[in-house]
C-alpha cells in the first residue's frame, strides 16, 4: 500500500514521523510488524506582508523583506500565471511598478525553496495604489464623564494610522495623546484637535478643525469659599446661544443659566438658597461639531459644605 499523507511541519525544526506497518495476507494472517520513519523538514519560514501600497509620489514599491534568509531561493509569480517566474534573479524583494498592476491585478505569489531540504512554501500578497487619506467623520460622545469619547473614521491612505489628540487641560497645560486606535476614551471637557499620520508614510499628515467635548459638574458647593460656588455647563462659551434651564425634583424652573456668563447658577431661587439636594437641567443648543440642534438632560447635586 502507498502512504499518501500530507504532513506540514510548522515547528521550525525537523520532526520524525513513525508509521507502524502491519502486513496481512489475503487470508487475514498478520506478519511481523515493522516501522517506517519519515523525516519531515520544516517549511521555509519567511516574511511576506499580506498587503503593500505604492505611494503616489514614488510610483513603485518593494514587496517582500530583505531580512529573509539567504539560504532560500525566491520565486516571484503573478497570481494569474504561476508558470512564469517574474524575475529569474530570484530576489528576496520584488519591485512592483504602477504599470505592472494592470496585468497582475495587484496579486502576487512568492514561493520560497529551502536550498538544503528543498522544501517549498508559498504565500499570497496584494499591491495597490495608496490614496491621500482624509478624515471621513469625527463622532463625539460627551456630557457623559468619565466616558466621554472621540471616534475618528478615516478613508484613503494605507489603512495603518497613528492618531494624536492635542488639547489644553483644565489646568491650562498643553497635552497630547497618541495611539493607534481611532477611539479616544475618558476625555475631559475641552477643545481638541485631531492629528492623523499614515504609518507607511504614503500620505501627508492631516489635522482636523477644532473638536469640542462638553460636560457638566456632577455637583457644586455654593458656600461662598470661592471654590465650586456656581454651576454651569463646562464649555458653555462654545455654545453662546444655548438655553440652559435648572429644575427641582418637581419640575419647577429655578434658573435660566446664561451660557455667556462665567458665573453660572449660584444655587438660589429668587435670592434664597435652595436646599442641599439633587437638581436637574436641560440644555438646548447647536452642536458645534455637527451644526445640528441637540438637547441634553442630566442631573447634579448641591452640597452645602461649611467654609473653613
Q: How does this model look, in words?
A:
The protein has 308 residues and is mostly beta strands. It has one helix and 22 strands. The termini are far apart. The model has no long low-confidence stretch (mean pLDDT 92).
Please work out how many helical segments DSSP would assign.
Answer: 1
Got a strand count? 22
Distance between the termini: 96 Å
User: Which percent band covers the strand fraction?
Assistant: over 45%
Radius of gyration: 34 Å
Helix percentage range: under 10%
Arrangement of strands in the largest sheet: 16-22-21-17-18
- The parts where pLDDT drops under 50 for at least 5 residues are none
Let me know the largest β-sheet.
5 strands, mixed
Gross morphology is: elongated
Topology as H/E string?
A: EEEEEEHEEEEEEEEEEEEEEEE
What average pLDDT do the residues reach? Answer: 92
User: Helix- and strand-based class?
Assistant: mainly beta
Name its key features:
1 helix; 45% strand; four-stranded mixed sheet; mainly beta; 308 residues; elongated
